[in-house]
Fold:
Amino acid sequence: MDSKAEIVLDFSPYFLAYKDGHVERFFGIDVVPPSLDSQSPVLSKDVQICPQTGVSARIFAPATVNSGQRLPLLVYFHGGAFLVGSPFCPTYHNFISSLVKEANIIALSVDYRLAPENFVPIAYEDSWAALKWAVSHSKGSGPEPWLNDYVDFDRVFLGGDSAGGNIVHNMAAQAGEENLGVRLLGACLIHPYFAKKEGGDVDNYWLFVSPTTSGSGDPRINPGTDPRLGGLGCSKVLVCVAEKDSMRGRGLYYYEELVESRWDGKVEVVESEGEEHVFHLFNPKSEKALELLKRLASFMNERPYH
Structure:
């Protein structure tokens, strides 16, 4: 077998990495164009966040929104093991559109750079830059009119699935240490990707995307070792797990660590019975997926927690 054909990381059916350095992606590569069609229940457009790095995002708004309304803002980070995924692919475009319609919110879905072309911590740096860009509109003078005109910056939420759920934690943790200019109201971690509770073991995917990691002691992947956990920069957290998800225990581990920390916010866990990892993305019309969508919507529309 020649080196070109030798696989060094197999994330089938989504991604393959080869010994010679080239990769193949099979998910997140199709692009759905944004739509400003007023006949659609949700409008969308693409925005550039950082020309120097190429970081961009897709912003979504209910078609019924008007300048007299101020809606919650969800800053969303897609999953994909830091290797695949995009706000512009059908899977995530459709999911965020459905959530915007259900919850009546504004959403900013972030296109952070992927490994191995850009190893961790680039994904965190890009995500933080996107979050700072979003909240820079809180005084009504940012470059994006939808954020200036339609967002209630007292109700800013973070959300993400799988690796995106990991990014949510790291952004909330960083917001607890750095002044964003606004206080994040909540964070939604859907089937989040962390180290295992038992020994803090990390898997080959993390070792591949983060070659400089310290392993099980890395606070970015192991919440039990993260000194920032007790100072999480938001008021409430929703952790979503799925009963048949191999990473279910990792989400519960995060929940347990957060409960036991000195953080003084409100944390809840919700479980989807009989379901697998990110089932809601691939079977969005199922009963359990619609239940999860409604739970996320209610979390963002509850009265602010004090």
